[in-house]
Design a protein that fits this description.
The strands form four sheets. Strands 1, 2, 3, 7, 8, 9, 12, 13, 14, 15 and 16 form an eleven-stranded mixed β-sheet that branches. This protein has 495 residues and is of the alpha+beta class. Helix content is 41%, strand content 20%. It folds into three domains: 297 residues, no CATH class; 114 residues, no CATH class; 58 residues, Orthogonal Bundle (Arc Repressor Mutant, subunit A). Bound molecules: adenosine-5'-diphosphate (ADP) and magnesium ion. Adenosine-5'-diphosphate binds next to helix 1, strand 2, strand 12 and strand 13.
Length: 495
């Protein structure tokens, strides 16, 4: 394994230093277990449905009864291929299943079937925005494996039981390079990955039910030093806990080092009640698992034709859609990325953009006012009181000059509160823009007369002084003036 660390080391050279915490650089790598959305298990026909009575969905294969043999689930392989295509990875034409040996009561075979030396998905990257900075986290691999069962501790009767319903559930373990440099970046990565797997439909993404579980490997170092020893925080199942756990872990490691202690490689758990991470066990090395190829399963062969077929059935991917939004609608990379946060959002945008013919303006309203309102009330887009065609109508009335942007905000308020007809709202609230130049000129003149100071400043070359005047005129016109027209009038009067 020291070899792996050396490779990581080499790959980290030349990468930018992240934000420092008390003089230390934070290094994070993720291992994510995404439960694949197949009906049946990865090597048996038992159901994968969540929440059944314990041990009602474990068949002879899952119970590891003697004489049973695993049979590969084609749907699980297809989902792995879809993931590889979605993140631009290499799909291995031949990959191998291996036995990962360890003893635990919820693992009846005494080993987990996984992939070790040759995983099915290799390389690729996940791209996302952190604020307005574009990041790319490189993936090492994604491999197929089976889940273990669950120990149930019934404290009130002082007994523990084993539920093997989950044993054999297909997982895709997705491993990154240690490319992340802050808890915020780690959360942004995890959200993006969650978006990808749910978008392509290979995982339901339900974090409470454990369908998407992240392990965060965290270390700290002085900038320019070799990578520090990492601790692995297991099973983070909410984005909020993820951030809290990593922040706590970083502080803890820095304190240890500052106190002169060396960090021991370990597996730790986060306790949401105390907000602390706590060592669970010292970390096993790969050698401890005595990996070897599983003689019960032949190599997995994936032909180029199969990959093409899978590609042909896949819907447009978020990153392709974002590129198309940039070329078709002239959006920025940032806006296009924002609008492809989910399939629902992208369809909403396209519907509004097509109906109004005003893609940029529609984009602004969706990522601005609409997003703010939805977030504020914790609503999903599907619950939005303002539909895409209605937003398109609003955008059309702004672009054809019927209403100003500030009047449009009032229309939006009314729509949010349940009104549905944009033109009727404009009419009843008297929001039509002032198109009568004479009346507008009078207001402009009044404001000029009352604001000698701003006028003088503008004439002295301070362009900002003009904004103050525009603001006053807009106010005096009760938001009905057209700001562009006001601007033009002012400039010609003050020239
Ligand atoms: P293992 O398989 O034993 O868990 P790997 O070497 O495959 O270990 O790495 C697992 C994860 O740990 C990867 O996501 C990798 O990016 C990350 N990682 C490796 N070294 C470090 C480090 N020094 N600091 C933070 N993360 C690391
Ligand atoms: Mg690991």
């Amino acid at each position: 394994m020291s070899e792996t660390v050396n490779t990581f080391e080499a790959q980290q050279q030349g990468r930018p230093t992240g934000p420092l915490v008390h003089g230390y650089e934070v290094i994070i790598g993720f291992e994510t277990h995404a439960q694949l959305s197949t009906q049946s298990k990865i090597f048996s026909r038992a159901s994968t449905a969540f929440g059944a009575e314990p041990n009602t969905q474990a068949c002879a294969v899952d119970l590891a009864l003697p004489g049973t043999l695993p049979v590969m689930n084609k749907g699980a392989v297809e989902r792995a291929i879809q993931f590889g295509l979605a993140i631009g990875a290499h799909i291995a034409p031949r990959s191998i299943f291996a036995r990962k040996n360890y003893f635990y009561p919820d693992l009846p075979k005494g080993y987990q079937i996984s992939q070790f030396e040759i995983p099915v998905v290799q390389g690729g990257a996940v791209e996302f925005f952190l604020g307005d900075e574009k990041k790319a986290v490189r993936l090492v691999r994604a491999h197929l494996e089976e889940d273990a069962g669950k120990s149930l501790h019934e404290d009130f009767i002082g007994q523990s039981g084993i539920d093997l319903n989950r044993a054999g559930t297909p997982l895709l373990e997705i491993v990154t390079e240690p490319d992340m440099r802050s808890s915020a970046e780690a959360v942004a990565y995890a959200k993006e990955l969650h978006k990808i797997v749910t978008w392509i439909g290979i995982c339901d993404g339900n974090m409470q039910e454990g369908s998407f579980r992240c392990d965060a490997n965290v270390s700290v170092r002085k900038p320019g030093s070799p990578l520090g020893t990492r601790r692995e925080i297991k099973n983070l199942n909410s984005f909020k806990f993820m951030q809290q756990a990593i922040d706590y872990e970083v502080r803890w490691q820095i304190e240890q080092i500052e106190d002169g202690h060396a960090i021991q490689q370990a597996t730790v758990l986060f306790n949401p009640d105390t907000g602390e991470t706590r060592a669970m066990r010292t970390k096993e090395d790969a050698a401890d698992y005595r990996y070897f190829p599983d003689p019960d399963l032949p190599p997995l062969y994936i032909s180029e034709q199969w990959v093409q077929d899978v590609r042909g059935q896949m819907a447009e991917l978020p990153r392709n859609m974002a590129a198309r939004f940039q070329s078709d609608y002239g959006l920025s990379d940032y806006d296009a990325t924002q609008l492809t946060q989910s399939l629902a959002l992208s369809s909403y945008f396209e519907a509004a953009a097509k109906a109004s013919g005003q893609a940029k303006l529609a984009s602004n309203w969706i990522t601005g006012e609409l997003a703010r309102r939805l977030n504020g009330q914790d609503l999903s887009l599907e619950q939005s009181p303002v539909s895409a065609p209605t937003l398109a109508q609003l955008v059309t009335r702004i672009s054809d000059g019927t209403i100003s942007n500030s009047a449009a905000k009032q229309v939006f308020d009314a729509l949010w509160d349940g009104a549905t007809d944009v033109d009727a709202i404009i009419e009843s609230k008297g929001l039509k823009q002032m198109n009568d130049t004479g009346a507008l000129e009078a207001i402009v003149q009044q404001v000029i007369d009352k604001n000698e100071k701003n006028v003088a400043e503008f004439k002295a070359g301070n362009d900002k002084a003009l904004n103050a005047l525009v603001g006053q005129i807009m106010k005096a016109s009760q938001g009905k003036a057209n700001p562009q027209q006001v601007n033009d009038l002012l400039r010609s009067k003050l020239a």
